[in-house]
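Private note to self, pasted from the team thread so I don't lose it. Backbone tokens:
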């Protein structure tokens, strides 16, 4: 359901549309489907989704700024339905986007796919970040370190952390039935970040553009199944 909603929201992305417009749509559709938008009031977060434009890495709060020709925009939706959370996001071009930024989006999509392909029972969680970082660095991109994938299920963030860079300290073995997100944030410049005074909006320290793709996956007996398709 989360992915269907994301696809619907993606259809609204256009020059002149505000992130508040998209948020209002997502909120309404969640309620229509009998789902709760997990981000709303989560640790005080004020909206029903996160919308992150250009140098905003994640947790952008929907507001009255209209999308501009050439922007790239990430929409991150989490829904609570039937007792569990599903978390999914993707990055979209607005109007005519510079080829460099389209490339960043495509490589970030591939990073997410490669992270998911590294999910395998018996392997350490660090294999996921290793695969992602290897792919991103091949193109001179960096992997944002401050935000990770997370265990998810009855809780939105259940304490399990899935870094998207390689850190061998994350040696917990993946086991069948584990559910977590893979959600790499890839920056054209530095991986270092800053937080706006609103306490949420995360931007790259050098204002370079960033993209993100996210899926919720479950570890199976021989790999991973994507739950947010
Ligand atoms: N959906 C985001 C994630 O992928 C989390 C948003 S938390 C919020 O983990 F509070 F900022 F909404
Ligand atoms: Co997530
Ligand atoms: Co998310």
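Design output:
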């Amino acid at each position: 359901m989360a992915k269907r909603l994301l696809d619907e929201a993606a259809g609204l992305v256009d020059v002149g549309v505000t992130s508040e417009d998209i948020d209002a749509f997502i909120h309404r559709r969640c309620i229509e489907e009998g789902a709760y938008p997990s981000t709303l009031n989560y640790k005080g977060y004020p909206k029903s989704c996160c919308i992150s434009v250009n140098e905003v890495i994640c947790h952008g709060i929907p507001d009255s700024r209209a999308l501009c020709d050439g922007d790239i925009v990430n929409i991150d939706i989490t829904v609570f339905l039937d007792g569990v959370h599903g978390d999914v996001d993707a990055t979209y071009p607005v109007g005519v986007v510079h080829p460099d930024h389209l490339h960043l989006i495509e490589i970030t999509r591939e990073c997410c796919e490669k992270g998911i392909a590294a999910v395998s029972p018996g392997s350490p969680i660090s294999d996921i970040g290793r695969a992602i970082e290897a792919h991103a660095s091949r193109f001179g991109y960096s992997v944002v370190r401050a935000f990770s994938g997370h265990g998810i299920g009855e809780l939105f963030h259940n304490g399990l952390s899935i870094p998207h860079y390689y850190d061998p300290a994350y040696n917990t073995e993946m086991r069948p039935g584990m559910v977590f997100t893979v959600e790499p944030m890839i920056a054209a410049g530095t991986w270092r970040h800053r937080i706006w005074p609103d306490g949420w909006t995360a931007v790259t320290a050098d204002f370079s553009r960033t993209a993100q793709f996210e899926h919720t996956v479950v570890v199976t007996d021989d790999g991973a199944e994507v739950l947010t398709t």
